[in-house]
Amino acid sequence: MDDSESLAQAAVADAAHKFLLSAAGDGGLLRAWPLVDPTLRICLAQLWVHANRGPITRLDFDFEEVAAALAKEGPGHRLWSNFETVTVRALRKTVYAGIGDNPENWGIASAPRLIDVETKLLYVHDVSKLPGAVWESDTYSIVVPMVMRLTDGEWRVLNVGSDVVPEPGWPPRLRH
């Protein structure tokens, strides 16, 4: 890998790591939200709205409007704190089940898998369980996949815990 490839990979890994520290670490969804691709934002909002359609209907909210507002406005919407609590809990469960809850042990494989020109798949490992803290391609390791996409010149998280490019809908598609 030449220097330009290393720098490009470092930018993707750095964005993924910042997200993990914010959403699954100690920061929460508010700090992580700018690092999330708009497609994942709407999918997470739709997933939460779909799971809470009974109470949302009783409050006389429109599903599409709530999902769009949560995805765009974040904490500006009155249901944000409920959405944030559930979403962070689910993200932490996904990350902790795969790589543990100690951010010092979270390592990102150095070679991303190309999905398309602007979309890459990363694998996050618990490096404390890897010989020499290095993952070798012929070695078994539990990983947390992360799909990253270049959006508006910035690498953003497109999916966590799955290698699927998410699709909005009712319910959204986030996994196989």
Structural key phrases:
176 residues, alpha+beta, 5 strands
Question: What share of the residues does DSSP label as strand, in percent?
Answer: 15-25%
What is the helix fraction of residues, given as a range? 40-55%
The arrangement of helices and strands along the chain is HHHHHHEEEEE
The main β sheet shows up as: 5 strands, antiparallel
Broad shape: globular
Rounded to an integer in angstroms, the radius of gyration calculated over CA atoms is 17 Å
Query: Unreliable runs, pLDDT <50, ≥5 residues?
Result: none
Instruction: Give the terminus-to-terminus CA distance.
Output: 32 Å
Number of helical runs? 6
The chain-level structural class is: alpha+beta
Quick one: how many beta strands? 5
Offer a quick outline of the entry:
The chain has 176 residues and is α+β, with helices and mostly antiparallel strands.
Can you put this structure into words, describing what you see?
This protein is an alpha+beta fold and 176 residues long. Helices cover 44% and strands 18% of the residues. The chain contains six helices and five strands. The chain has helices at residues 3-25, 29-32, 38-51, 53-58, 63-73, 80-99, and strands spanning 106-108, 113-116, 119-126, 143-151, 154-160. Strands 1, 2, 3, 4 and 5 form a five-stranded antiparallel sheet that branches. Strand 2 (113-116) and strand 3 form a beta hairpin. Helix 1 crosses helix 6 (80-99) and helix 3 packs across helix 5 (63-73). It is globular.
